[in-house]
Amino acid sequence: MKKGGFHAGVSVHDPAVYVGESGAYYIFGTHMTAAVSRDLRYWESIAEGVSAQNPLFSNLFDEGLRAFRFSGKFNGREYAVWAPDVFYNPVMGKYIMYFCTSGSYVKSSICMAEADKPEGPYTYMDTILCSGFDEETVGLTNVRQVLGENADISRYLKKNGRYNNLRWPNCIDPNVFRDREGKLHMVYGSWSGGIFLLDIDESTGRPVRMEENLRNRIDPYFGRKLLGGGHKSIEGPYILYDAVSDFYYLFVSFGGLARDGGYQIRLFRSRKAEGPYVDMEGKTFRRVSHHDSYGLKLIGNYLFPGMECGYKSPGHNSAFTDQDGKLYIVYHQRFDMESEFHEPRVHQLFRTRNGWLTVAPFATEGEMLCAKSYQEAEICGTYYVVEHGLDISAKVRNAVKMYWKPDGRIVIRSRKDNGQTEDKTAGEYMLENESRIIITLGGITYDCVIVQLNDEAGNPTMCFTGVGNNQSIWAVRYL
């Protein structure tokens, strides 16, 4: 077995994907980085950095500077431009980029720009949403324009050094999507008051003012609250509607984004775009003291034998359905090294029997599920198993060596003092039809699919990937 990994060729943080009409895949990320790929593995940079020389924007440093008059500096960075999301609007006949600027952990704005091509150049249009304002700065926002000059806005104002008890969202991380009826929505938000949803007017690309409804948690300016609150870690929302399962999948990131911050990807789902969004246990994440048990944890920190180092802090993802119907997740990945270096990764998603999603353990290379029924003889052997758990921590989960036995047992083998080996039963498995297997370990039953693909170093593997009780499992056998 060789060790190693591939390098994506670019470093894009908070990657949002746009699938081009010509078969090209574009990702756009924080600090106005952008890259293009033809195979979802190797990327070519097309823009990087918030500067007048960035080809992605035509006027960010003239007319576009209006976006920064409210938000200002963040951590000494003069222009903090984060998490762009690109969407083609056929009514406007333009590619619309939604992006955010920030001046503190709550003082932020969501802006929009337009272009004739996905790679730009984009022209700043407007600032459509702001958060973290007070009596002195509200005049730099569009709040009164949206609600009316005489509207009572006291509930929104920053008070006593805190953002009104963290009731309202931090206006960052926008993502625009269509529902099953073709209507446009924007999901956005972070920490503070949590994740919110707005309706979008397709003729203008701007939010539609929503009627206040306290029972349904709808605010006329910020929209509908979906998840989170109380400044618990949650950010990077992305909603994917899957016509096959007829579910809306809401991806979010928990933890702190740095290498040792425990960053990770969680999943909720709903039958309706407006929610409620629940996890595998039927729970939705409101304001709670601890939120580590909420949401299906898709990916955390892990290490397999074929890797040179542990993979850490995966997060702030986007997702898409490709032209051939395959589902993919796109996120940035840090590593267990002495730096915050990160790269984009694209892994295939698979549907489980009960309509949840599970992630392939390794970066995509066009792999497919085998349309066959496996026999025990094809399955038995040595596997390296990562159970992602529910923790939000910097811990790297090293793959545990286990053995799949012909009798359906999963055992862990140890060597006794006399030199003989001893098998201790750790769980069991049961094969099903068409590349599906049920695995029980540690009292958790995982609904899994079977897929063959190469690991990061190019080693061929047979993999099981599945979910159960809000947790994920990856089992890898090197062929």
What is the C-level CATH assignment of the largest domain? Mainly Beta
Largest sheet: 8 strands, antiparallel, barrel
**Estimated radius of gyration:** 23 Å
Structural class per helix/strand content?
mainly beta
What best-fitting shape do the alpha-carbon axes yield?
Answer: globular
Instruction: Examine the secondary-structure arrangement and name the CATH architecture of the largest domain.
Output: 5 Propeller
Q: Poorly predicted ranges (pLDDT <50, ≥5 residues)?
A: none
Mean pLDDT: 93
Counted by DSSP, the helix tally is: 3
CATH topology of the largest domain: Tachylectin-2, Chain A
Report the β-strand fraction as a percent range: 35-45%
Q: What name goes with the CATH superfamily of the largest domain?
A: Glycosyl hydrolase domain, family 43
Which percent range fits the helix content? under 10%
Straight-line N-to-C gap: 9 Å
Number of domains: 2
Spatial order of the strands forming the largest sheet? 24-26-27-28-29-30-31-32
- How many distinct beta strands? 32
